Amino acid sequence: MTPGRLSGVGVGPGDPELLTLKALRLIQEADVIAYPVAKRGDGVALSAARPHLRPDQQLLPLVYPITASPEADLPSYPEVMRAFYDRSADEIASLLDAGRNVCVLCEGDPFFYGSFIYWHARLNDRYETTVTPGVSSVMAGPVALGRPLCLRKDTVTVIPGTLPPEELTRRLAAADAAVVMKLGRTFGKVRAALEAAGALDRAFYVERASQAGERTMRAAEVDPASVPYFSIVVVPSRETP
C-alpha cells in the first residue's frame, strides 16, 4: 500500500479567513485532521479550520500532557514532552501507513515555535511531507494595534518570555522593535524587563489577535494574573512614516 501524505499547515492566529489558499486546499483534501490541543476544548488551530472541514474527515486530537505551570517547571518536563511527541508521531505514522493523508493543523506558522517542528523531525524522512506557512501573531499583533512594527532600517527582535529576566532586559534594550511571545505566567517578569530596558512606555499588549476575544492595551496597564498564553507584547519602532 502506498503511504499517505503528511501536511503541516499553518492556520494563522485564529481568524478562519486568514488561512492561505494552499492551506485551505490541503485541509480539504486530507482524510485525517490532526490538531494539538490542551486537555479541554478544541484549541485555536481546530477552531480556525473548523469552518472549512468536511463532515467525513476523521479528527485526531493530539492532547498535550502538560500545558502550564507548575508542571511545566518540573525537571521531568522535557522527558514528558519527548514521550508525548514520540507517541503521537507513532499514531500519525499508523494512519499514514494505512494510506491516509494526514493534515496536522498548527497555530500561526508550523516552523515558528510550532509543535509541528517535533512531528516533522520524527516523520519527515519516512513520509512525503509538505509544510505550509501561516500568518504568525507577530504579524497579526501590530495589525490589531493599528501600529506598524518596523520600517526603513529597523531590525526586529522576537523574544520568548521564558528567557531569564536579565536576558530579556538586554535584548529589549538593544531592539529597534520587538515582539515578546510565550507570555501567560511569564508576563510579570516581561513587564519588569520592559521597564528596566526603558521600553515600557512604548510597549503594547495584544491578546488573542484576530480572534473573537481579541484585546489590546498598553502593557503597563495589564493585570499579570489575567494574561493567557495566546498573547504577545509588541514594542513598535520609534520611527514614524
TrEMBL record:
GO terms for molecular function: precorrin-2 C20-methyltransferase activity. Keywords: Cobalamin biosynthesis, Methyltransferase, S-adenosyl-L-methionine, Transferase. InterPro entries: 4pyrrol_Mease (IPR000878), 4pyrrol_Methylase_sf (IPR035996), 4pyrrole_Mease_sub1 (IPR014777), 4pyrrole_Mease_sub2 (IPR014776), CobI/CbiL (IPR012382), CobI/CbiL/CobIJ_dom (IPR006364). Pfam families: TP_methylase. One of its GO terms (biological process) is cobalamin biosynthetic process. Residues 6-218 form the Tetrapyrrole methylase domain. Gene3D superfamilies: Cobalt-precorrin-4 Transmethylase, Domain 1, Methyltransferase, Cobalt-precorrin-4 Transmethylase, Domain 2. Pathway: Cofactor biosynthesis; adenosylcobalamin biosynthesis. SUPFAM superfamilies: Tetrapyrrole methylase (SSF53790). Belongs to the precorrin methyltransferase family. This is Precorrin-2 C(20)-methyltransferase. The lineage of its organism: Bacteria, Pseudomonadati, Pseudomonadota, Alphaproteobacteria, Hyphomicrobiales.
